[in-house]
Amino acid sequence: MLAFRRRAEMANPIFFFVLIVTMFPLAIGAQPHLLQSMAPGVIWVSALLATLLSLDGLFRSDFDDGSIEQMLLSPQPLSVLVLGKIIAHWLVTGLPLILIAPLLALFLGLPEQARGTLWLTLILATPLLSLIGAIGVALTVGLRRGGMILSLLVLPLYVPVLIFASSAVDRAAGGLPVSAQLNILLAMLLAGLVLIPLPTSLALKMSIN
Amino acid sequence: MSIFPDSVGRFFHRTASPPYFYALADRFIPWLTGILLILLAAGLVDGLYLAPTDYQQGESYRIMFIHVPAAWMSLFIYVLLAVMGGIALVWRMKLAEVMLVASAPIGAGFTFIALVTGSLWGKPMWGTWWVWDARLTFELILLFQYLGIISLYNAIEDKRSAARAVAILALVGVVNVPIIHYSVEWWSTLHQGPTVTKMDKPSIHISMLIPLLLMAVAFKVYYLIAALQNAKLELLKRESSSQWVKNLLEKSA
Hints:
By secondary structure, chain A is mainly alpha-helical. Chain A has 9 helices and no strands.
């Protein structure tokens, strides 16, 4: 994987994630009770923002050096190649977030019984974030300054993921069953894996023109 | 095209050609404006003067006659955007692209109106301008989706590919709309439940329902007028170098 060679770029989303989470106690005060009740939301919003920040790298370098044209010309269907790109993106950004999240949950004092759920939601939903984001990136990759527009396009699409994931963690913290939320996240992930590469490759073709 | 009779196919082909559409829009707009004025006058008079005062909410419920149709329109136009996006992508119909682009700002406007009037209605009824309730949040996210479409279209310089990008986005967005809808329903809600589209008899009295429906139709006609005007302008901008536009300019000059 080429992305692994650029360590700094790979570490950026993690630092960003940790930094944002650290900002919350500084901004709202360090009452343990308050932090504990806000922990699921804080961790999830931070994960969302960290993913959003890293999205631009998904197709940017390929677009700049012309690899996307090569992908378009290759005999394999573009959607499969796109799916490969998305999985690679998740491996270098989503996976580190999953690994670092338990530490942050500890910082914020998330109750013991919610930590497993936090892990599960992150495992299910960070690939979904990469997938959904891919559509937005594919649409904006041809623009010189697509950053703001990218967040405007992608954040509304992230809303359901955010709601189900953070409410699952919230419920788990209160000792309630969470299988419904997890099942919905799993369903969205599977549907996304199948469906999202198609509009993404369509948008990429459009961006190349 | 084989399932349709030939005349239907011909009608679509002819209507889809920009000069014909332009002339047709020109012919329809005065008529539509007349219908709009009649409907709007009837709806407003009926809604603001004739309809009885609500026994719980007093006079302030009357903002419903703006709020509810605007909220309906915000969703209706979004679905239309997706339909036109699909047509634009599958059949590469230029006119569908133009109508899509022309409709998006109107939809955003209706969404904004629904939010503002809802907020004005919420102040006397619930005591706050804004609550994080399912339908309010949904409407707000819908507004962001509209803004995303508009700004994406403005950001891409080549208007042909901009329209295709927007079509893709509208299709993705419309898949997302029901998901967002149900996910925000997840929270319990302060907002009253739907009153008109309930499966059994509407729980709204007929004397209030009639002005509401009048206003809804008036808003639809208004949308048609505004979208046609917008589409005409968009066509002129796009085809400014083509022969029919030059003929048109010569005629008006």
